[in-house]
Each structure stands twice: as C-alpha cells, then as structure tokens.
Specification:
By secondary structure, this protein is an alpha/beta fold. α1 packs across α2. It is globular. The N terminus is likely disordered. The protein has a 6-stranded mixed beta sheet with strand order 2-1-3-7-8-10, sandwiched between helices. The chain has a 3-stranded antiparallel beta sheet with strand order 4-5-6. The chain starts with 8 loop residues before the first helix and ends with a helix.
Length: about 350
C-alpha cells in the first residue's frame, strides 16, 4: 500500500521532457532510445534513469485537500453525532504537513459548492482530494441527494463539482443513508468511491462514519504495518467494525458498505484482485503515521519515501495482475521488487 494509483501528470510530463533532453529530441522511429519505442526491450540504464525521473517528479510538493461535510440531522442526537464524528476526522487529519483540512458542519448547498469551487481554482493535478459526507441521504430510484439545510445537493451536481477539480487523485467517502445510490454518478477513473450502503434502498441512518473516524485514529487500521493508512485499509476497518456492531446488538444490518475504484462498477463488499476492485484504493494514502509521517516532513527523506511508495505501488499492481502472468515471471518480478523495497526500507530507516 502506498500513494496514488498512477503517476501524477507532472511525473509523466517530466519523463517526456527528460527524454527529449537526454536524446536531443532527434531519435528516429526505430531508435530504441526513443521514449515509448522500446517496451520490454529498453536497456537497463534507460529504465533506471526513467524511474529516477519519475520518482523525483512524484516527490514534488503536493497537497491533499480534505473536506468533511455534515448534513441535516433532523434530531439533536443525530446532529450531535454527525458533528462529533466530523471533528474526530478533522483532528486525525490535521497532522499531515501538506494537509488542507476543512470541516463544514450542518453545511448548506451553497457552502459545499463554494468550498469545492474554490478548491477547483487552487488545486494542482499533482494534488489529492478527499471528500467525506456524513448525514442522511435519499434516493428516488434515479437521483441521490444528501439532505442539507435548505436545498439538498444531488449526486449529479456533486459529480460536476468534483470533475472541475484538477486534483488527479480523488476519494469520495459517502457515509449517509442511501449513499449507494450515488455511485453511478460519482464513479470515474482515478476516483475511489466508498458508500456506506450497497444501494439507494438502504435508507436507515448509518453508523459507518463512526468507524471511519475511528480508523483514522487507530494504528490497527494500518494492517500491513507500513505506517500509512490507505483508503482500502480504512474501508476494511470501518466495514468490519460496522458488521460487528450489528452482530453485537443482535440486529439485522441495514447498511452494507461498498467500494468502487475502477470507474465502471457498482461497488463491491470485498474488493480484491479477483473482482478487480480495490487497487486504486490500496494505493491511496489517506493518512501517514509513525516514521512515514515524520519522513514526510523531512526534505532529506522525501525522495526515499517516494521510491518506497512507488515500489509498493508496483508490488500491489503485480499482485492484481498475477492471474495474467506466467508463474515463473511473477515470482521473478515479485522477488526483485521485494528485494529493492527491503534495500530502500533499510536506507529509509537509517
């Protein structure tokens, strides 16, 4: 688990420019030195240079915008719980050096629109956006709405606002009732969508937000112990806790959280390589903790951190592609990546 699911746009651009600088932009179509002309056949030195370029570009300063919205509670107890969970999320996320955290409690439609419009003007393609919705939602069979004071906000309107934000890595965590009804509108390549309910017909109040907030404050959520809580790890933690809550209360579960990160699915309960869901979420760093959080504040460690996270991304991707790779090739590639990761981790820990 580590960073974004794909190299930021700046990294790709840096690689193209560096290729032109290295080879003068004059390599002919048949020249194996030409970037993109030698998949699987590029000399080792070229691949090494290209990886260094990508890692350097991906370590450029980037911000993560975290926006938590609570909607209309309807009752004092709900309003109190929604605000409490939002504040717990805010407290956990403010520790990051490049975190831009905003919490809109009992927000109006115009407040949400105004915040996202401003971020659309500020954010860069290398940045990330995490939008978290807490409250009640509704679904009429076609359109989802989050219930806000005054006019509600529809999923289609929200999707339009998010599409205008240039941040190339986006995560939407919709923790309201009926939130599954919003997935069709919100799903998009390079966007992770998590919903507290599997569809729009699960209309009872949800508690998924309680355990999502808990995931951000509990080191146990970091299941692979790499000092980064990914979107996938937080999802699994919160879902497991939600299931356990209903079981402990001897109640029939009225919410079933799902995740969609391919841009074309309806969301699944258990993301895995078998169903193709979860890779992007596994590579989305929601929260850095421990040594990784300390390193993110240290310019001397940033390049090593970028290399470490890139190797982890490659390992995650390889595991998802395992079925399509001959076993011997898979073992060879995995072994090489794990060895390089171990060396990088040793240097990182010095």
């Amino acid at each position: 688990m580590s960073g974004a699911g794909s190299q930021p746009a700046a990294a790709s651009q840096a690689a193209r420019l560096a290729g032109k600088r290295l080879f003068g932009g004059k390599a002919g179509p048949g020249d194996p030195r030409r970037p993109g002309a030698c998949p699987g056949a590029c000399p080792t030195w070229f691949l090494s240079v290209l990886l260094t370029i990508l890692l350097t570009a991906s370590s450029l300063p980037a911000a993560t915008y975290y926006v938590t919205v609570t909607g209309l509670g309807g009752e004092p107890d709900y309003e109190q719980h929604f605000a409490m969970w939002a504040k717990d999320i805010e407290k956990a996320l403010k520790t990051g050096p490049d975190s831009k955290v905003e919490t809109l409690v009992n927000a109006t439609r115009e407040q949400v629109r105004g915040t996202l419009d401003r971020i659309a003007k500020e954010a860069k393609p290398t940045d990330a956006l995490v939008l978290m919705l807490i409250g009640h939602g509704s679904f009429d069979g076609y359109e989802y709405k989050i219930n806000l004071p005054g006019p509600d906000l529809t999923a289609s309107e929200l999707a339009g606002l998010l599409d205008r934000i240039p941040a190339s890595r986006q995560l939407v965590v919709n923790m309201t009732s009926a939130s599954g009804g919003a997935i069709t509108f919100l799903r998009k390549p390079n966007r992770v969508v998590i919903a507290a309910t599997k569809n729009g017909t699960e209309r009872n109040a949800t508690i998924f937000a309680r355990y999502w907030a808990e995931a951000l404050g509990d080191p146990a959520a970091d299941s692979d112990k790499n000092d980064v809580v990914s979107a996938l790890e937080a999802f699994r933690y919160a879902d497991k806790k939600t299931v356990a809550f209903y079981e402990s209360q001897n109640r029939l579960a009225t919410e079933h959280a799902v995740l969609e990160d391919t841009g074309k699915g309806d969301g699944v309960r258990a993301p895995s390589a078998e169903n193709g869901e979860g890779l992007l979420a596994a590579q989305f760093p929601l929260l850095r903790i421990g040594a990784t959080a300390t390193a993110a504040k240290d310019p001397a460690k940033l390049q090593l951190l970028a290399k470490k996270e890139e190797l982890e991304r490659q390992i995650d991707k390889l595991k998802y592609d395992k079925a399509a790779i001959p076993p011997e090739d898979y073992r060879r590639q995995l072994g090489a990546l794990l060895l390089e990761l171990a060396k990088t981790q040793e240097e990182f820990d010095k």
